[in-house]
Structure formats: C-alpha cells, structure tokens
From TrEMBL:
Residues 83-394 form the Adenosine deaminase domain. Belongs to the metallo-dependent hydrolases superfamily. Adenosine and AMP deaminases family. It catalyses: N(6)-methyl-AMP + H2O + H(+) = IMP + methylamine. This is Adenosine deaminase domain-containing protein. Its cofactor is Zn(2+). GO terms for biological process: adenosine catabolic process; inosine biosynthetic process; nucleotide metabolic process. GO terms for molecular function: adenosine deaminase activity; metal ion binding. Keywords: Hydrolase, Metal-binding, Nucleotide metabolism, Zinc. It holds the Pfam family A_deaminase. It comes from Eleusine coracana subsp. coracana.
C-alpha cells in the first residue's frame, strides 16, 4: 500500500511539473534533437542506411553499431572518429564530458544542410512547447559548409524557418513586432482554454564554439547584431572546455558587450582556474554550469550574483557533479543565489525541463510553491525585453490559480 501511494505521489508531482509553465534558458539545438530524428537523419547518409537495422534503443539511450570499415571511411574524411563515437554511444549509463563531446561531433556532422537544421529547429520547439515551456532560448553555433552552400547567416535563417514552420503552437520569435499580435498585448489566457492554441516565446542565442578563431567568433557576434530584429538576442560561449584559450574569444565577447548584446558563458565545466577567474572578472549576464569552482571563486560568484543556468542531469551524467544529492544546486539555492533550471541537451541526456523540476523536488524536497517560485524567478533572467517578461509573469499568474489552489 505504501509503495502504491509512493508511485501515485510521484506520478502526481511529475504531472504537476509538466503542467507548470516553464522558462528554458540553456538548450543547445543540436543536443535537443529527438532520437527518432537522429536515426532518420542517419538513415539518409548513403553508406549508413543499410546499417540502421543494428540500431537498438536501450533505456532511452541510443545504441548504434558502426562497422570498422565505415568508421574508418568517414573518420578518414576528418569529420569524426567513428570508432570513438561507437564506444560512447554503446554506453548504457553515464558518459564522461569528453565522451559527450564525441557525440556532439556526430550531431554537428548530421546538421550540415539547411533542411535538416530547419527540421530540427521545428521539432525542438514543438517538444519544448508540448511540455509547457512558454519561453525558450535556443542556442546554436552558426556553421559554414561551403559544399552545401551554407554560410553562418543562411544557417541561422534555416533555424528561423524551422520556428516559422511550427503549427501545433503559436511561436512568437521575433522582436520587431511583425507578428500579427503585438508581444506586449498577449493575454495568454489560452493556457486555461484548450480550445485555443498555446504560445511559446522563442529566442536565439548564437554560440561561439571554443574551436573557433577570434575572427570567426567576431563574425558570430556581428551576425547576432545584424539579426537582432529576427529573434537573435544573445551570445553564448560553449564547446569542449578542454579546447581553446579564453584570450581567443575575449575580443568577440568584449565586442558583444560594447554592442549591448547579452552574454552567457559555459563556466567551470573543468577546473581551469585561470579561465574561471577571467570569466568571473568579465561578469557576463548569465553563467552555465559552474561545476568546478573553488572556495574563493564561489565567494566571488555569490557576491557578483550572476544568474546560473543549472543543468542537473547534464552535470551528473558528465561528471561535473558527483551525484544529484551532492549537486551544487543545494548550496546556491540555500544561498538564495539567482538560478534557473535548464536541460542543456534534452536529447543527449534523455531529460526534459519538467523532469529537471521533478528531480529538484525528489532530490532536495522542494515543495510545489518553491518549484513555482523557481519558475517565476527564471523570468527575471531571460534576455528578452520587459514586454515579454510582463507577458510571462501574467501567464504564470493565471497558471498559479490552477496549480496552487
Ligand atoms: Zn551547454
């Protein structure tokens, strides 16, 4: 009987977390790809299609098998070392951070044509909207691919086409009020009314990949400026944390700061003391992860009150945090540090934003009203303008009556 009650209580809080209108601030486009889409795109690669039969899905994690010959063939083209990827994908539980970056390489390799980018962007928005994410900042690294006629600009255009293609939900994505409805006048009552479509605000952050040169990073910042009226509202620094030097990206980040473009930075994924200090001194608008800070750096972070994008599942799976129970969420939450729950890579880590809220409740014992407060607080940290923030606050106010009787 006790077990039955426990199961029922877990189901109830999980459903409540799905119903909660949520704000997602740290979601990589490529890492949020549906497993089914990943397989479908893989099947379009000529040499790979006969091999899809060896695909197995175990516990939500993809398990693929690549024969040595194909691995060598594709690996020799300098795209990716498939033997490495195979080993990583075959893992049924936790992958290390370097292993995850091998998978990212695979995802990036699959998103090198415009149509695929458009499809993935559309589906990612649909998936977040389906679990009541009402504001979504998607981050992605604009890519060049001369063979496919892809420029950084055309890549971002392809992402935007994906946002426009969503039909299951109204997507409010640009900031120049070209939608039929002004952003400042969106009542959002539709959340209580199933007969009307839901709405989701979507904004784009352009990522500087740590493998890029200073010049390429500057191109990305200039592109963000050029596309600021088309839903691009910020810059992110991300990529394999053991690659690259802070000094390489600093001119571009400084340029973004001068242009007034909000910045978020992946910080402390590895214990790189020099870079963590430089990032804290740079003082961006938000930080992601902050896993490997020492006592002095924690002290500085807390005094700066830089909002943190907390990615519980991601940090545990990549070893940035030893376990959910020992995750630094608890320390930051108890210190009332500004923070927001995020997924990082919902596809890669088989999670969702609703699941991240559930994990906080299950692991740290937060009540529904505390979870609701977390969702409300996240609105403060969005990069969108005050009109959008006001609209999100109204939306949460309406939901409060339903969720917090
Ligand atoms: Zn990330």
């Amino acid at each position: 009987m006790d077990t039955e009650r426990k199961v029922a209580a877990e189901k109830e809080i999980r459903e409540w977390c799905v119903a909660l209108p949520k704000v997602e601030l740290h979601a990589h486009l490529n890492g949020s790809v549906r497993n089914s889409t990943l397989l479908s795109v893989l099947s379009t690669i000529p040499h790979l299609s006969p091999l899809i039969s060896v695909v197995i899905v175990l516990s939500g994690l993809l398990v693929l098998d690549f024969p040595a010959e194909l691995a060598k063939q594709l690996g020799d083209r300098g795209v990716i070392v498939f033997e490495d990827v195979k080993d990583v994908i075959m893992k049924a539980d936790g992958r290390s951070l370097p292993e995850c970056f091998k998978l990212f390489d695979l995802f990036h390799m699959l998103t090198t044509d415009h149509d695929t980018v458009t499809r993935i962007a559309k589906e990612v928005v649909e998936d977040f909207a389906a679990e009541n994410v009402v504001y979504l900042e998607i981050r992605t690294t604009p890519k060049k691919n001369a063979a496919k006629g892809m420029t950084k600009r055309s890549y971002v255009d392809a992402v935007i086409r994906g946002l426009k293609a969503v039909e299951s939900v109204d997507v409010l994505f640009d900031s120049n009020l070209t939608t039929s409805e002004p952003l400042s006048c969106t009542p959002m009552t539709e959340l209580d009314n199933d007969t009307r479509k839901k709405k989701i605000y979507v904004r784009l952050l352009l990522s500087i990949d740590r493998r890029e040169t200073t010049s390429a990073a500057l191109d990305t910042v200039n592109l963000a400026m050029e596309m600021k009226d088309q839903g691009v509202i910020g810059i992110d620094l991300s990529g394999n944390p053991v690659v690259g030097e802070w000094e390489t990206y600093l001119p571009a980040l400084q340029h973004a700061k001068e242009l007034g473009i909000p910045i978020t930075i992946h910080c402390g994924e590895v214990p790189n003391r020099k870079e963590i200090q430089a990032v804290l001194d740079f003082c961006p608008q938000r930080l992601g992860h902050v896993c490997c800070l020492n006592d002095d750096e924690w002290k500085q972070l807390k005094s700066l009150k830089i909002p943190i994008e907390i990615c519980l599942t991601s940090n545990v799976m990549t070893g940035g945090a030893p376990s959910l129970e020992l995750h630094h969420f608890a320390d930051l939450y108890n210190a009332r540090h500004p923070l927001s729950l995020c997924t990082d890579d919902s596809g890669l880590f088989s999670t969702s934003l609703s699941n991240e809220y559930y994990l906080v409740a299950a692991t740290f014992g937060l009540s529904k009203s505390e979870l609701f407060q977390l969702a409300q607080d996240a609105v403060h940290f969005v990069f969108a303008d005050d009109d959008v923030k006001s609209s999100l606050r109204r939306m949460l106010k309406i939901a409060e009556k339903r969720l917090m009787p």
